[in-house]
Write a structure and sequence with these properties.
Layout: E1 11-14, H1 25-52, H2 59-76, H3 79-88, E2 92-94, H4 95-128, H5 133-136, H6 139-165, E3 173-175, H7 182-187, H8 194-227, H9 232-265, H10 269-294, H11 296-305, H12 308-322
Parallel strand pairs: 1-3
Antiparallel strand pairs: 1-2
Helix pairs in contact: 1-2, 1-3, 1-10, 1-11, 2-4, 2-10, 4-6, 4-8, 4-9, 6-8, 9-10, 10-11
């Protein structure tokens, strides 16, 4: 299809890349539906807890609720279409749908990256400058950082999408993946892809390398600050405030690195798709567990939200009266 002169539309065929055996498709459908529902439900609980409890109206939980929203959107760009294709036994995705899916995938992946960097800065200020934390991390600054993250991600995703729109494709091409991944899509073009490949490498280095550098710098200052604390209890308390974020960062970048290495070292669609599953599905699914299991504030807010705290207090009072 000549995309440049706006001629006829073409379709792509999404091959799951996980298994070509038809008898395994119901199992794959059930597994991905379960993970998707857990992801949406878990992240919605985080958003509900933060919005309903005034004690959680702090910069850290403001960023966490934004991260949960982005994780829901990130997973929703790929999994519903995959489930629909399995259910209808169709592999077709239109050219317009493919470009749209690719755009939002890059957008929300970039937002994940930026928000984790912003959260690292928040932890740096909380541990290294605790007395000035509320002054530095003002609502205006928090809102500005989230807004800048959105603007940068939108521009980055728009640039890649416009670069793909200039390419020419044949009709009914097969994408060996369960979603329109930009690298797989560029490889199918029969026009020159030099600028696209250069932009992908430059963008990955600038976006991934820049944000990772910011995170590493923040944690180097955090480690240095914790090391200067004299008491072991103080060190443990300081470290516990950033343990959840550090776990989320490690999971995000380890899976991102796995996707990159699997695509660079192997041309197998199975290994690439399996690595992408970890990145696009498992990581957003685990983030609510990472933060809720380690945060007493989140647990307390959820109990208040569902009335469990009132029930437990009434039960304790009833036991005291009986004794």
């Amino acid at each position: 299809m000549e995309s440049g002169n706006g001629t006829q539309s073409s379709n792509f065929l999404l091959l799951l890349g996980l298994s070509g055996e038809s008898e395994l498709q119901p199992l794959i459908f059930g597994l991905f539906l379960f993970m998707y529902l857990i992801t949406v439900f878990g992240n919605l609980l985080i958003i509900l807890a933060v919005s309903s409890d005034s004690h959680l109206h702090t910069p850290m939980y403001f960023f966490l609720s934004n991260l949960s929203f982005v994780d829901i959107c990130f997973t929703s760009t790929t999994i519903p279409k995959m489930l629909w294709n399995i259910q209808t036994e169709s592999q077709v995705i239109t050219y317009e749908g493919c470009i749209t899916q690719m755009y939002f995938y890059i957008l929300f992946a970039g937002l994940d990256d930026f928000l984790l960097t912003v959260m690292a800065y928040d932890r740096y200020v909380a541990i290294c400058h605790p007395l000035h934390y509320m002054v530095i991390m003002s609502p205006q600054l928090c809102g500005l950082m989230v807004l800048i993250s959105w603007i940068m991600s939108v521009l980055y995703s728009l640039l890649h999408s416009l670069m793909v729109l200039r390419l020419s494709f044949c009709t009914d091409l097969e994408i060996p993946h369960f979603f329109c991944e930009i690298k797989e899509l560029v490889q199918l073009a029969y026009s020159s892809t030099f600028l696209n490949n250069t932009m992908m490498q430059f963008g990955a280095g600038l976006l991934g390398g820049g944000t990772l550098t910011g995170i590493l710098y923040s944690y180097s200052k955090i480690v240095s600050s914790i090391y200067r604390i004299s008491s072991a209890q103080g060190k443990c308390k300081a470290f516990s405030t950033c343990a959840s974020h550090l776990s989320a960062v490690s999971l995000f970048y380890c899976t991102s690195l796995g996707v990159y290495l699997s695509s660079a070292a192997s041309h197998s669609s199975l290994s690439s798709a399996a690595a992408s599953v970890m990145y696009t599905v498992v990581t957003p699914m685990l983030n609510p567990f990472i933060y809720s299991l380690r945060s007493k504030d989140i647990k307390r807010a959820l109990k208040r939200c569902f009335g469990m705290e009132t029930v437990s207090r009434s039960f304790v009072l009833g036991l005291k009266q009986c004794t």
